[in-house]
Design a protein that fits this description.
Blueprint (H helix, E strand, L loop, with lengths): L1 H23 L20 H15 L23 H11 L2 E3 L5 E3 L20 H4 L3 H9 L2 E8 L2 E6 L6 E2 L20 H16 L3 H34 L3
Antiparallel strand pairs: 1-2, 3-4, 4-5
The site of heme C (HEC) has 20 residues, from α2 and α5.
């Protein structure tokens, strides 16, 4: 009897703990799709450019991007900026680097986005790749704030349905109308979140489109090759199978 009781107790316990674990890890991902998904997916250049504007204007104060060089903003599959546009972007944003004497000088196109340290915010160079389903994760966090906040040991935490644990140590960075888009697009919260996600995905995986295109080319090649082999095979064996 005792054995049955304790077996029952551990069963109940297991049920409760797995249930609690599932609840703790329960993150709500937004139902969102991006142009770069699927075998023919590509980055939406206008969105990537607007996302760059959001990153620069809103996120770059806390999140660095130390593995991304300014010159890569020329990427045809990404932002596709001209050399002059990149120079103008650097100048307008006022990015600076230290020269060999330690003095701050204007950044050049071959320099990298600054690393931001100390704020406790992860670097964004690879964030979209470092998280499972990274693009959806980023978009969901940006749009997942409930408006609730609490203070824990002097730190304000913000309730966020997409963040593991449900509370994030980042005030809502986007509200809508945070930037005035240079291309005239209306800057709603969802639009901004989508655009900065496009940009961050490109930053983390700039060769995504080339890889997909190579994959599709390989599959087409393999199909043609298979058809060819079929006919060659028939021809080679024709005399054996159907002797005159
Ligand atoms: C005021 C500083 C600040 C700004 C501005 C800011 N963030 Fe954050 N962000 C943080 C901090 C700090 C964390 C870590 C939160 C934590 O550990 O709870 C964070 C975490 C995140 C995460 C979760 C990262 C993970 O570990 O999965 C994402 C996504 C994110 N930020 C995106 C953005 C985007 C996009 C912007 C610009 C629109 C932005 N943040 C602007 C401070 C900031």
């Amino acid at each position: 009897m005792n054995m049955i009781k304790s077996a029952f107790a551990s069963l109940v316990l297991a049920f409760i703990t797995t249930g609690a674990f599932a609840a703790g890890g329960d993150v709500k991902h937004a139902d969102v799709e991006f142009s770069f998904e699927g075998p023919f997916g590509v980055y939406d250049r206008a969105a990537v450019q607007r996302g760059l504007q959001i990153y620069q204007g809103v996120c770059s104060g806390c999140h660095g991007m130390k593995f991304v060089a300014f010159r890569t903003l020329a990427d045809e599959n990404g932002p596709g900026l001209s050399n002059d546009q990149i120079k103008a972007f650097i100048a307008e944003a006022g990015y600076e680097v230290e020269d060999e004497t330690g003095e701050l000088v204007p950044a050049q196109t071959y320099d990298y986005f600054p690393a931001v340290t100390g704020a406790g915010a992860p670097d964004m160079s690879l964030l979209a790749k470092a998280r499972a389903d990274g693009a959806v994760h980023i978009y969901s966090i940006l749009t997942g704030y409930t408006g609730e906040e609490k203070e824990v040991a002097g730190t304000v935490l913000y309730e966020n349905t997409a963040y593991p644990g449900g509370w994030i140590n980042m005030a809502p960075p986007l509200w809508g109308d945070d930037v005035e888009y240079t291309d005239g697009t209306e800057a709603t919260l969802e639009r901004e979140a989508r655009d900065v996600t496009q940009f961050l995905m490109w930053a983390a995986e700039p060769t995504l489109v080339e890889r997909k295109q190579a994959g599709v080319r390989n599959i087409i090649f393999l199909i043609i090759f298979a058809v060819m082999l079929y006919f060659v095979n028939r021809r080679v064996w024709a005399k054996v199978k159907h002797p005159e």
